[in-house]
Amino acid sequence: MAELHLHIEGTLQPELIFALAERNGIELPYVDLDELRSRYEFTDLQSFLDLYYANMAVLRTEQDFADMTRAYLARAASGGVRHVEVMMDAQAHVSRGVPLETCVNGVASALATSEREFGVSTLLIAAFLRDLPEDDALEVLEQLLAMNAPIAGIGLDSAEVGNPPSKFVRLYQRAAEAGLHRIAHAGEEGPASYITDSLDLLGVERIDHGIRCMEDPALVQRLAKEQIPLTVCPLSNVRLRAVETLADHPLPAMLAAGLNVSVNSDDPAYFGGYVDDNFVQLTAVHGLTTAQRSALAANSIRSSFASEARKAELLGEVRAWEAAAGSISG
Ligand code: ADE
Ligand code: ZN
After folding, report:
1. What value does the mean pLDDT of the chain take?
2. In this model, does residue 330 exceed pLDDT 60?
3. 24: pLDDT confidence band, cut at 50, 70 and 90?
């Protein structure tokens, strides 16, 4: 399967936060791991973002970014991920004085050896913080282009409500001109209209989250007809209270509506699980069948920006997995 919705900074595990703090001589505002872990009770997206941005303070050197990325790749590979499209929040590092080259080169160096080391092919996506001004994003995008950063596309994340897609029309125009893929978070906490506007105003090829489309039947029809990929993150939605419990999650209804959904982890160090954990818990709660799990994996591969050859290879693996799982379960 492919993981299409993953913030690399959201893979920073508490143990690594402490190790990097020590390496860099940074004093953390928590006495120990237990105190840090006690902060992982979120009431909404913003309450999570506050901790997520604060913990980034331990990322200073290329080695820090590379170590974080390698730890994620190793864990993702062990959970069955074979291709990943990693988002990075460059503005969150530049704004605290870390040079753009440091974060880009650190993450990119680990991604570059991933296929050989872990069997996981990778792409890097520059995500922009929607609660900052568009000009700030444009400036960082120009710098990324000038330095020939190995990015495949751009995304849009951070605080959604009050920061609509219409704020970023010029940014997405520039990315299109530069030949980059375009994705955006929409319909996580924000309204269904943000999904429509991401498609129509920003020209995105894929929507991150998108669960609130279920409030708009006409939009569901359109998304199903156009097979717009929606990168859904069930454990994230529960932890950030976008849905009350996993049992209330709309994923089965989204599949039934013919939507092109995949399962992803978003920020696995914060939300209690990697993509395989999402599958295990969904299967326990919703009784996902082998065919449904296989369809979700195939959707993730088809919706990726991997080469056609890589997609064909990975789709073959999904078919083989489904055949083997089918013959075991009889
Ligand atoms: N940044 C990291 N995780 C995010 C999420 N789930 N929504 C918006 N911005 C994010
Ligand atoms: Zn996200």
Report:
1. 97
2. no
3. very high
Q: How far does the centroid of ligand 1 lie from the alpha carbon of residue 219, in Å?
A: 23
Q: How far apart are CA 135 and CA 145, in angstroms?
A: 15
Q: pTM score, two decimals?
A: 0.98
Exposure string (b/e) for 7-17, b if CB count within 10 Å is 16 or more? bbbbbbbbebb
Q: Which ligand is nearest to the CA of 190?
A: 1
C-alpha of residue 166 to centroid of ligand 1, in Å: 19
Q: Which residue among the candidates 22, 188, 226, 322 is catalytic per the annotation?
A: 188
Is 3.20.20.140 the CATH number for 2-329? yes
Q: Which residue minimizes the CA distance to atom 9 of ligand 1?
A: 158
Look at residue 329 and tell me whether its pLDDT is greater than 70.
no
Q: Any idea which ligand is nearest the CA of 156?
A: 1
Domain boundaries, the chain: 2-329
**Is residue 134 annotated as a catalytic residue, yes or no?**
no
Q: Residue 56: CB within 6 Å of ligand 1?
A: no
* Confidence check: pLDDT of 328 > 80: no
Q: What is the C-alpha separation between 180 and 125, in angstroms, rounded?
A: 9
The mean per-residue pLDDT over the stretch 307-316 comes to 98
Q: Kindly tell me if the per-residue pLDDT of 54 is higher than 60.
A: yes
Ligand 1 near 62 CB (within 6 A):
no
Q: Please state, in angstroms and rounded to a whole number, the distance separating the CA atoms of residues 295 and 299.
A: 6
Quick check: 323 pLDDT over 70?
yes
Closest-CA residue to 273 (of 82, 118, 81)? 81
Nearest CA to ligand 1 atom 10: 158
CA of 167 to the centre of ligand 2 (A): 19
